[in-house]
Amino acid sequence: MQPVVLWVPSGRRLLSGLLGMNLVLLGAALVGSQAFNPSGLRNQEPEAFLLLVMGLSLAWLLWHLLWARRQPGAPPHTDHHAGGVAVTVVLMVLAAFSVLLHVFRLGYFAMMVGCKPAAKILSAFFEGPFVILQVTTPASIKPYTVHMEIELEREEAGVFGNLSFDIELRVGERDPVPVWAYTMCLVFRKGVEVLYPFNMEYYLMAGCLLYVMWKNVGRHTAPHAPAAPHRLTLRAIRRSGVLLGPLAGGATLLLGVALFVLYQVWVGHRKQREAAFLLFYGFHLVLVPLMVLASLGGSLVHVLERRGRGKGGGEGGRNPARSLDVLLLVGAALGQLSLSYFSLVAALAVGPQGMMGNLDLAYSLLCLLELVLQNVFIIDGLNGPHHGPHHGPHHAAGPAHCQRATKKSRKAVVELLEPDKAATAGETEGGKKKPWTRRAKQEICAFLILSNIMLWVIPAFGAHPQFENGLGKKFFGFTAWFILVNLGQPLGVFYRMHSVGALIEILITA
């Protein structure tokens, strides 16, 4: 069914888009000024702007929650494109870690009240309630809120990028600092360092979901598409016997965590530094080729499915979430792709130098191949047909059609709740056995999900050998290479997390 505009004129979307664009440009100018001339902004303008944006967002959220949504004839509050079960659970987990981060920030700023500007201290008090209120608000956020949220994430990165943990200033004061206060300050500092990657991922994910809601304002989907199929498919997956993918991915995750801990311990000692780099490159040179083979196998499975099904069978109607998923995957992959290409250019210019140079070059080439093949597999999976109770093309939904679809949906729910029929739900579909291609796709998705989680953990929590080692630093110089890595690594981290979400959706809809 094609979407039908029911409310909110397009002029409001234009106004909100212009407002958001100006907020982003102003925030980028403030963050850039703070980065290039830190002493030029004497009145904490970036933090003040952040407080203003959060204050406006909080005021609108409270107005919407307490008054606007209770009015008769209010617009619908449920966006199925942005409110899937997996997405909601991940967002809630990230929000919980973000709230915990703000608790540590409050403790840290409370102990540094004499050293930190008032704007930073106030932002720590505002941001925790902002996250809580935003997560608990129904999924009907207005257009301009997404721009404020994305701007908030950009500002947050700037604030934390300039957050100097200056305990030594307190130690150097005339009055001696108690041991317990010094210890607590270290605990708060470490808590902020550990939890900050989750906070960054929360803001990125919230911004993406709010963008989908903004694009869906005024669209009306077919009423015969309830939320039940996702829950039923999850139950079918648990009974479908998918085993090899989770086992291989779980082993990868456990081994990766152990090696990551060893890396963090060894990299701080000069004598064991080279061994730490060998651990990093060795793990990636084993895992990335396996992911290449898995992505290639998944793409071949998609080809076989299309040949067996013929043309058609895709998801009907325009879905902004699908377009955004593809755009984010391709855009976020540019970070690691650019680093790999710069490393390749450096290797061609100066030639591999020593074992570490060869390892860095091999790592860059494998990352290029893995990113391209995984993107092909994910995009094919997102744009392909989705199996489930409502598989097939959409038709115009009249009253009689909606009534028949509702009866069929209730009948499917009742049948799957019966023990004898629920046990075979994952093995049959319409009286036929589930094709082996769908089982293979589920195994591949399970392995890639856990592998991408591991590849997210490693850079998100501080393993960056490209800063200290590699051909790029020798060829481009430390300053230029430092800037390139600082721009590329955050995009790579976001790519891994977003690819996990896309792979979960492919796994569920398989």
Automatic annotation (TrEMBL):
GO cellular component: plasma membrane
InterPro entries: Otopetrin
Protein's membrane topology: Multi-pass membrane protein
Key words, A-Z: Cell membrane, Hydrogen ion transport, Ion channel, Ion transport, Membrane, Transmembrane, Transmembrane helix, Transport
GO molecular-function term, one example from the UniProt record: proton channel activity
Compartment(s) where it occurs, according to its Swiss-Prot or TrEMBL record: Cell membrane
Superkingdom: Eukaryota
A Pfam family: Otopetrin
Transmembrane segments: 14-36, 48-68, 80-104, 241-266, 278-304, 324-349, 444-463, 475-495
Entry's family note: Belongs to the otopetrin family.
Protein name, entry field: Otopetrin-3
Species assigned in the record: Conger conger (Conger eel)
